[in-house]
Design brief:
About 65% of the residues lie in helices and about 0% in strands. With about 325 residues, the protein is mainly α.
């Protein structure tokens, strides 16, 4: 069973009515007008609550459910029969503190037939249905079972019951979750492209260059990961030498984006366009944001050096991925 990995996604904020935060975990309350993702029928600023509810569900699947399932099936056979193939106790660290956020599934499903329409993502979510809820409930039972080492006391008796529950829940989930994630990735990419165009039109240069920096960083990591995936066709994991043909111009673009963002952050007139950078917390918010941007640039530079030198780049790749996620969190906070 493959683990699907993804970086955090960007929030889209609009000027429509209703709750535009979509359950924003970052605590932002300020909205920036953006054009809506392709697939929507209306024009102009809209309410992005539906989009953000889909984003929440995608991140819950990628960030919470899939890592636990990967840990579980690394130690238990992926079949209807319960067979331990590794160290069952090793599952504990991944699942013991898991919280089933079933409301994220329910919220996304509530928006399914609402406007704007996202045909591919809507269809994929309809097929997925409430299966993530059933998986979450099974994982919650697994977490409770592991948390206090009950599995050691009952000689895995209850483990068989939990496995049966999880296996049943996975029948619909496993058949459809990847299609939902793929459809949302396409939707997210188009939404970010629309956002770039709108931010440039509105001369929101801090947001524009931030988004350019983030997207270019993601493009770099996606290229590296695709080369890693292509090289790993056997059972043994290898880190291949990375072809820099497509990456070199991307790193050049990254340099340009960071330079432009630094210039925009240094402009008082540009800072005034970002509400988070004004008022009593303006200076500290600006300092944190600048630090996150510089950290991302630094980690991407370290990755570039490792790739060009042909040295082990595993740690640099993971650090760059974490830095992108942190930068996305900061970007979402200033929307």
């Amino acid at each position: 069973r493959d683990l699907c990995l993804s970086c955090s996604k960007l929030w889209l904020a609009g000027c429509g009515s209703g709750d535009q935060s979509g359950g924003d975990k970052s605590g932002t309350g300020t909205d920036v007008s953006t054009s809506e993702p392709s697939g929507s029928k209306s024009e102009g600023p809209v309410d992005y609550s539906k989009y953000n509810s889909y984003l929440d569900l995608a991140e819950e699947i990628n960030g919470e459910i899939e890592p636990i399932l990967a840990a579980y099936f690394s130690n238990v056979d992926f079949s209807s029969e319960f067979t331990v193939t590794g160290d069952y106790a090793a599952i504990k660290e991944a699942v013991e503190f898991y919280t089933p956020n079933t409301y994220l599934v329910e919220k996304a499903l509530d928006y399914l037939d609402e406007e704007p329409a996202y045909p591919e993502a809507d269809a994929a979510l309809r097929d997925l249905g409430d299966s993530p809820v059933k998986v979450m409930e099974a994982l919650n039972h697994l977490g409770s079972y592991m948390r206090f080492d009950e599995f050691e006391e009952d000689n895995l008796a209850k483990a068989r019951e939990i496995h049966a529950e999880l296996w049943s829940a996975l029948q619909v989930y496993d058949a459809n979750y990847e299609a939902f994630l793929a459809a949302f990735d396409i939707l997210a990419s188009q939404g970010e492209e629309d956002s770039l165009n709108q931010l440039l039109k509105e001369e929101q240069m801090i947001l524009y260059h931030s988004l350019c920096l983030i997207r270019t960083s993601e493009d770099i990591l996606n290229d590296v990961w695709s080369q890693i995936d292509a090289a790993n066709t056997g059972e043994e994991t290898v880190l291949p030498e990375i072809d820099m043909t497509n990456l070199s111009p991307l790193f050049d673009s990254l340099q340009t984006s960071h330079d432009s963002l630094t210039q925009a952050l240094g402009s008082e007139s540009e800072r005034e366009k970002v509400e988070m950078f004004t008022g009593r917390v303006g200076d500290s918010a600006l300092e944190l944001y600048t630090s996150r941007a510089n950290s991302l640039y630094g980690y991407m530079g370290t990755l570039s050096e490792a790739l060009m030198a042909g040295t082990d780049y595993a740690e640099a790749l993971l650090n760059a991925s974490d830095a992108i996620s942190s930068m996305i969190d900061s970007y979402n906070n200033i929307l």
